[in-house]
Amino acid sequence: MAIEPHILKSFDEALNTLHGQVSRMGVLAEHQLGRAIQALAERNDELAGNVVQADAEIDALEAAANDQVVRVLALRAPVADDLRVVLTALKVAGALERVADYAANIAKRSIVLSSLPQVPTVRPLQRLGKLVHGLLAEALTAYEERDADKALEVWNRDKEVDEQYSGLFRELLTYMMEDSRNITPCSHLLFIAKNIERIGDHTTNICEMAYFLTTGHPIEGARPKNDTSISGSAQE
Amino acid sequence: MSVSQSSAASAVPSAGENAKPKLIAQDVNVYYGAKHALKHVDLAMNAGEVTALIGPSGCGKSTFLRCLNRMNDTIEGCRVEGSITLDGQDIVRGVDPVLLRARVGMVFQRPNPFPKSIYDNVAFGPRIHQLIDKKEELDEIVISSLKRAGLYEEVKDRLDAIGTGLSGGQQQRLCIARAIAVNPEVILMDEPCSALDPIATATVEELIDELRESYTIIIVTHSMQQAARVSQRTAFFHLGEVVETGLTEQIFTNPREKLTQGYITGRFG
Question: Where are the domains of chain A?
């Protein structure tokens, strides 16, 4: 992880251990989200069950990363870029744990949904899922490669997530109003859409950490948002 | 090597309302014979602040510290060029080194009390600088200096005991009391805690923090943690040059120069 090695090799080993834990979490969280969306689209209960079960590994990795952060802070007293490596690892690990939790929740709801009549909104939900999945992968690459420009680019794209989510929200409300039998499946789909939108928010947090790790400064300005679901619901 | 080039006045930006340069070094060069030990050093050191000088061994930080009270005068073949001013007065030339050292005190790496009583150690400076007329005045200076150095309560019943019989941390605080007894404006400290245990170090660091309101303090330290704990500004020296100066918080969180980052994070020494 360190750009230049430290004189004390064990310091590099400690940082590499932490980096390895967070990297592994990134790979797993991304995989979990992809599989949860696939399980939803295919009404595949077995795959969804696997996603739910696999969440424990990510939780355990987060706990291990937290322990490693405490060890490095206590024993190495890192400063400057080393300190940023440790702090961002802690925050990215927290974000990835949440991403994985949301993915597991999507999987649980997809199991419930597969027992209910199919509603036609699954396809736009898949589109939103793929968008966020792609952004998460790019955010993790920006973090791995310490690419501030890429992090900023992905961070700015969260408004696309907001736009799609707002559209889905209105669409689901319409289905529910049209036929009350749609309320149960559409409510689950609404939660799933919200989960995906929240994963998008955690993705922007990872971008912010990647930017801070690389430059030493936070991203300036407010994140572009385009979530009109709140004002939309008020008007309904 | 990438080196921040700026004039001394702007080398250290002012942070607080009270931060004003007490000592200003401009284009200071020091030679030991043919060896060019300090190269074009620009540095401003503010009143009411602790300035830490850090850098690997042989980088010139102690040489620079010794320029501030003319201790290099005693080294044969040493030549100092450039300007160092104390409140605007040039101290490189045209000032009596003995009088200068009354204004600019020094605390060394190893505690070096005189083999005299605790009282006489502190009274030594006021006596040779003839700052007092009466015994009562001297008593007052000794007691107030020991109090300011945080040592009085520990030694008040044995002021006649020999100073070298104190513990290491107490000896160093005695040396600080000795330094402040002549009412200096600046205190130079050359690795003042390197011979002390962590508790004595913490006591001296707390003392440094208390003293900085009254004195301009310049400290040379090999401990990055100590520089981070006690100083408001840090200057990083490397191969006789000042690579970077800035607020200590900035130096230790986001240094501008890669060389500074490499040093403080332990990537080279």
Answer: 9-235
Question: Which residues, at least 6 apart from A165, have a Cβ–Cβ distance to it below 8 Å?
Answer: A128, A193, A194, A196, A197, A200, A227, A229
What 3-state class would DSSP assign to A113? helix
pLDDT single digits (tens) A94-138:
999 999 999 999 999 999 999 998 887 788 899 999 999 999 999
pLDDT of residue A73: 95
Residue-range domain boundaries for chain B: 8-111+188-264
Q: In B, which residues are within 8 Å of A83 by CB distance?
A: 253
Are the beta carbons of A7 and B252 separated by less than 8 Å? Answer: no
Beta strands B89-90 and B241-247, pairing class: unpaired
**Rounded distance, CA B37 to CA B33, Å?**
10
Query: How would you classify residue B94: left for phi > 0, otherwise alpha for psi between -120 and 50, otherwise beta?
Result: left
In chain B, residues with a C-beta closer than 8 Å to the C-beta of A2 are 267
Contacts of A202 by beta carbon, 8 Å cutoff, 6+ apart:
A95, A96, A98, A99, A102
Mean pLDDT per 10-residue interval, chain B, length 269 residues = 42 55 96 95 96 96 95 91 96 91 92 95 90 87 92 95 94 94 95 87 90 95 94 97 96 95 87
DSSP code for B162: B
Among candidates B225, B255, B268 on the partner chain, residue whose Cβ is nearest the Cβ of A80? B255
Fold of B8-111+188-264: Rossmann fold (3.40.50)
With a threshold of 0.85, tell me whether the complex ipTM lies above it: no
Identity of the residue in A81, A216, A217 whose CB atom sits nearest the CB atom of B265? A81
**CB spacing of B252 vs A79 below 8 angstroms:** yes
Mean local confidence (pLDDT), A84-103 = 98
Quick check: A80 contacting B, CB < 8 Å?
Answer: yes
Architecture of domain A9-235: Up-down Bundle (1.20)
pTM above 0.90, yes or no: no
Q: Is the torsion defined by CA of B236, B240, B242, B243 positive or negative?
A: negative
